[in-house]
From TrEMBL:
Signal peptide annotation: none
PPIase FKBP-type domain mapped to chain residues: 162-215
GO terms for biological process, alphabetical: 'de novo' cotranslational protein folding; cell division; protein transport; protein unfolding
HAMAP family on file: Trigger_factor_Tig
EC number: 5.2.1.8
Gene, per the UniProt record: tig
Gene3D superfamilies given in the database record: 3.10.50.40, Trigger factor ribosome-binding domain (3.30.70.1050), Trigger factor, C-terminal domain (1.10.3120.10)
Species annotation: Nocardia alba
InterPro entries linked: PPIase_dom_sf (IPR046357), PPIase_FKBP_dom (IPR001179), Trig_fac (IPR005215), Trigger_fac_C (IPR008880), Trigger_fac_C_sf (IPR037041), Trigger_fac_ribosome-bd_bac (IPR008881), Trigger_fac_ribosome-bd_sf (IPR036611), Trigger_fact/SurA_dom_sf (IPR027304)
Protein name according to UniProt: Trigger factor
EC top class named in words: isomerase
Length: 454
């Protein structure tokens, strides 16, 4: 087999493939065997008829069609491997020549990973917000903990912010009832903002047994995106009584004996949370700096595929009705044009990010260990409320295990870059990122040790 590669653009190539017919003998044998099972020829058991008789019965053209269909995927894969092009996406294959007994020729146009020139990471500088831990931060954590041990008590007064109420809801659109929006005995924490927009404001000041109407936009059902008149009726009002923040509470809610020890522990928790948030900010800012610094040609077909997937999912949520999607977007103060523009920009950034981090991972020879992959799977399974076994099974069925591996590798590659970038906080202090992202030098040594062990 002979193959050549034409560079059509920085992100697309055309692979020209010529296959001598003698290389197709295994494919002919396979085609005859398959056709023999389908064609009934008197005097021969299924699958036992000679090739010549099969050709006479079905025609040489049918045999050639079967051979080409079987041969193309393997020959394309062989050509890709031989040419060492890094393909992404699906190829567009065109058969250019079939000379029976002589040659099969075809072309395959496909997107490829572009060549990316990476910068000197030590020249990149980013600044993130500094953080402090105040008494208010600790008090917020303590209040949250006290709320978990609070008790609800019925009260004979009007609803106030923070109360727990039992309510009935009904709705009309253009004077017609909306059955799917009606409910009774619904529990709700006033001020949480978890239900319909405008509900919290409507119930404050109402007593048990009183009702109030307000307008809001429905977000689900057949009337999604439409303005409705909502009627809320308060059935009961309860307030939450919190335990005193004293040594007795500390012993009840934690392993500590005193409230001061509990507060010190809560301070440590706040610090860890703020460090995680700062680490996320560092990662995002380093990535943004890379995206601004590095030129990454974008494969149009890959970007289009990502855009099409997002649009399909969005329209699917409205029974594939573009008009309903447009109505919902307008209700949110947006439009289909803005949605399409934002989707295109997000897809371009996503593809650019993946290509850039893949290039960094390859340049730095970033390796992913089994433990790192397992940790990501456990994290993702917990995130989706699934057992690790269920998550792995679902990922394997969808053919996405490679995508999970790629995400871990990209994250690790970015962490390696962070370790080489100068990071300062808003007060001018240098931020030590080794605690957050590890030491790149140590990681390199570990990877070399693992490679030597293998």
């Amino acid at each position: 087999m002979k193959s050549t590669v034409e560079q059509l653009s920085p992100t697309r190539v055309r692979i020209n493939v010529e296959v001598p017919f003698e290389e197709l003998k295994p494919d002919f044998d396979k085609a005859y065997k398959a056709l023999a099972q389908q064609v009934k020829i008197p005097g021969f058991r299924p699958g036992k008829a000679p090739a010549k008789l099969i050709e006479t019965r079905v025609g040489r053209g049918a045999v050639l069609e079967q051979v080409v269909n079987d041969a193309l995927p393997n020959k394309y894969a062989e050509a890709v491997q031989t040419s060492e092009v890094k393909v992404i996406g699906q190829p567009e294959i065109e058969i250019t020549k079939i000379e029976d007994g002589t040659e099969l020729a075809f072309t395959a146009e496909v997107d490829v990973r572009p060549e990316i020139t990476l910068p000197d990471y030590s020249g990149i500088e980013v600044t993130v917000d500094s953080f402090t831990i105040g008494d208010d931060d600790i008090e917020e954590q303590l209040t949250s903990l006290r709320q978990r041990f609070g008790t609800l008590t019925g009260v004979e007064r009007a609803v106030a912010d923070g109360d727990f109420v039992s309510i009935d809801l009904s709705a009309t659109v253009d004077g017609a009832d909306v059955p799917e929006a009606a409910t009774t005995g619904l529990s709700h924490e006033v001020g949480s903002g978890q239900l319909i927009e405008g509900l919290d404001e409507a119930v404050i000041g109402l007593n048990a047994g009183e009702s109030k109407e307000f307008t809001s936009t429905l977000v689900a059902g057949d009337h999604a995106g439409k303005e409705a008149v909502i009627t809320v009726t308060v059935q009961s009002v309860k307030e939450r009584e919190l335990p005193e923040a004293d040594d007795e509470f500390a012993q009840l809610a934690s392993e500590f004996d005193t409230i001061d020890e509990l507060k010190e522990d809560l301070k440590g928790r706040v610090e860890r949370v703020k460090k995680v948030e700062q680490a996320g900010s560092i990662r995002d800012k380093v990535l943004d700096a890379l995206l601004e610094t590095v030129e990454v040609p974008l494969p149009e077909a890959v970007v289009k595929a990502e855009v099409d997937a997002v649009v399909h999912d969005a329209v699917h949520g409205f029974d594939h009705d573009d008009a309903k999607l447009a109505e919902a977007l307008e209700a949110q103060g947006s439009s289909r044009e803005e949605f399409d523009k934002d989707t295109q920009e997000a897809a371009e950034k996503s593809v650019k990010t993946q290509l850039l981090l893949d290039a960094i991972a390859e340049a730095e020879n970033t390796q992913v260990g089994q433990q790192e992959l397992t940790e990501r799977i456990l994290f993702q399974a917990q995130r989706y409320g699934m057992s690790p076994e269920q998550f792995i099974q679902q990922v394997q069925q969808a053919g996405q295990l490679g995508a999970v591996f790629a995400d871990v590798r990209r994250g690790k590659a970015l962490a390696g870059v962070v370790g080489q970038v100068k990071v300062t906080d808003s007060e001018g202090n240098v931020v030590d990122t080794t605690e957050m992202f590890g030491d790149p030098a140590e990681s390199a040594e570990i990877e070399l040790d693992e490679a030597a062990a293998e």
